[in-house]
Each structure stands twice: as structure tokens, then as C-alpha cells.
Amino acid sequence: MKNLLFVLFLFGFCTFFHSAQAQQTGHVSDPALGLAFDIPSGWVGQLSGDYFIMGHQNMPGMIILSMHQSNVNQLKQEAKKGLHDPDNSVALQLSGNIQNLNKHTIAGMLEGTVNWQAAKAYFIGMANPNGNGISIAVLVGKELFDQKHIDIAHEVMHSVKFTKPQTAGIKNEWETWLANTRVQYLNSNYSPSYTSGGISAYSESKEKIDLCAAGYFIHYSFSMVSAGNAGMNGYSGGQDGGQGNWEIQVGAGGTPYLILKFNDGTVREYELSYEDEKLYLNGRRYFRTKTGDESPACY
Length: 299
Known about the structure:
This protein is mainly beta. It has 2 domains: 2-162, Protein Transport Mog1p, Chain A (3-Layer(aba) Sandwich); 168-294, no CATH class. The protein contains 4 helices and 20 strands. The strands form 3 sheets. A 9-stranded antiparallel beta sheet has the order 15-14-13-12-20-19-18-17-16, with helices on one face. Strands 3-4-5-10-9-8-7-6 form an 8-stranded antiparallel beta sheet. Strands 1-2-11 form a 3-stranded antiparallel beta sheet. The longest helix has 13 residues, at 147-159.
């Protein structure tokens, strides 16, 4: 349900299919995700980020598919909370009871407003005990909603097939590439003062993670803020010393994550991506090194 909030906010009631870009019909299958489904007759679909959006030339509304890793109880809790955006452009509440379609599937209705227009969304949440689940939502203006929107959601649901995600290749590739390397984030900022009584400031932050092939890691972080003319400064840092295990996990949508499990029970999670020959952790640029002064402290 949290994923659906983002989609509703992003697309609102606009007609999604204005272009012919990468439109699909018929059967859709992704072995890496362990998912297959059919696009209903007369509809076309398009992948947009982590979501698959379907639209129809004549039938109002859109069908939104998103992956999740929630169980049935978690899906119910999210549905009961409804969907709300901080600026109130999305305000949808659960309307009526949540239905149990089977042991792993729920359904229900949301009503309220999207972009300050009256809206209804029928949703189906399908949990998958063996991997990624899927949420199906049909969103339409309230006055245009009728039984056919519920029927089309059920048609998509009945076409869904779950298989074991074939993510071993993704996991192995990242583990091999990161083993016995140091990944490092560096950021510094200087703000000069151009007035006699002004304050110039300097800040610096670093994070180093040594990822050793034996499965352990060394984590070091440092941050400092200095305000020169005011005589103020601050520092925090430390080496969380050699002291935990790391692994790669592949989440919903095939997204790889670096998981650091510290010996004190703390767990840190970083979403991994590689774009334009640059490594990113949680959207921040990290440098990867194996040799020289910045080689990892792996023994």
C-alpha cells in the first residue's frame, strides 16, 4: 500500500498512455522476479520504475501493479491506514471491510480524493510465502467506477503466476564484484563569509566499508563541522571494528541491497546501483578500491 501511494501521487488522474513508448500487450513474464501475468484484452501496459501501469483506450481508469514482500497481516494493516500524502493531494481511506479472497490474498475498496478529485481504488493484495508478492489496484474517478473495474482486477489476479525468483545471478555478481574491496563516501563543504562579522563554516563527512571475501566487514564513519570565526566545532566518528557479517540480498523488483549485520545486532541496509560506471549506495556516489592506500583491511 505504501508503494501505491507513490504511484497515485505521481500519476493522479492523468491519462498514462500518451505515447507508444515500450507498450506491451498479452503475457508478461520476468523469471528474475518470479512473476508472470496477463495484460487483459484491450489494455496496454508499460513499466515505469518499479511499477507496471496499464491503461485502456476507452475504459476509464488505470491498473497499477507493484511488487512487495509483505505477508497477509502486514497487507491488512497497511490497508487499514489508508493512503495519505503530506500536502493532502492523496487522501484515501478504507471503505467497508477487507475481504479474504484466499489464505494469501485480500481485497478491499479505498475512497477519497486524488489531486483533490473524488476517487475510488479497488485493490487486491497477493502475498507470496516463497518470494515477492504483488499488489493490484484499479484507480478511477468516483463517478466513473463500476463493477467492471472490480472484474478487471480479478481477471489480472487470476492470471498471476508465482515462481521461484531467479536472483542467484544478481546476488553472485554483486558479491564477486564487492568482495575484498573498500567502498567509500566522501563529502566536504566550505561556506565562506564575506562580511567582517560573518562566520565561515566547513563540514566534512566520510564513510568507509571494507568488505572482505571471508564474509566480515570493517566500518568506519567520520563527521565534522567547524565554524571558524565563532570558535565552534564538532566531531563524531569511530571504527565499528571488524565486526560483523555482510551479504547481498535481492529485494522486490530485483533490486540488490548490501546488508551489514553488526555484532551488536544493528543492521544497516544500502540499496545498490551502478550507473555510468559509478557505484551508488542509497543514491550516494561511493568509490570502490582494491589496492594502494585505500585497499581494504582484509586478512
